[in-house]
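Lab notebook: predicted structure, single chain.

Context: the supervisor wants predicted structures on file for every construct in the current expression panel, including those that have not yet been purified. This is the next one on the list. No modifications to the sequence; it matches the entry in the shared construct table.
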Amino acid sequence: MAKLKGPLFSLGASGSLAKTIVFAVWKGIKYARTHVVPANPQSADQTTQRDNFTALVTEWHNVLRLVVDKTAYDKRASLQKLTMSGFNLFIRLYRLFFAAEDTLIYFYNLAGVWSAGSTKVTITGDCNTASEDCQAYFYDANGGLLGEGTIDSEVDKSFDTEVDFEMTVAPAYFKIVSDTADHGGESGYYEVTTGV
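Prediction complete. Output recorded below exactly as produced.
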C-alpha cells in the first residue's frame, strides 16, 4: 500500500480509477491500492451458511417475536457481559443449532410469575414446534445462576406450565432451553414477576 501526499496532482482523491487502482483515506492517511474483486465461489457450504443466516434474520423479524422477546435477548447479552446486542446473541446461538442440524425451537412471548410463599414459577408462552424436554434456568440481576427446574409437561406451540423454584431474590430472570435430542432452542432472559 502506497502512502500519498498529493494523489492525482490534487489535495485528495478517493474512489477507483478504471477498475485498476483505488484511492482512499484510512485513519487520516491517504493511500492507494490495486483494485481487487472479492472472491465469491458460491460453494455449497457458503450457500448453506448464507441461507441459514438469512433464515435467522427473517426469524428475528417474525411478527410473533414481540419487543419483550427481543428485550429478553438484550438482557441475556447484558447479564452475560457479552459485548453484543440481543440480535447478535440470537444469531450466534441459533447458528450453532443449524450447524448441529437440530430442529430449531423458537420461543415467543414468555412470561414467568411467582406467587409469594409458592415453591413454583408459572411459565407461559409460545413456540414454533413441540419439544418434549425443556429446562428452565433462573438467574439473579448479576447473571448468577440461582437454580434450574425441569418443565414437566411437553412444551407445545402454546404452553402454561409450573417449574419448581422458590424465589429468594428480586429481580430474578429465567430462560428456557430445549433438551430434546436433535432439537435446539434457547430463549433470552425474561424477568420473573410477582403475582398474587
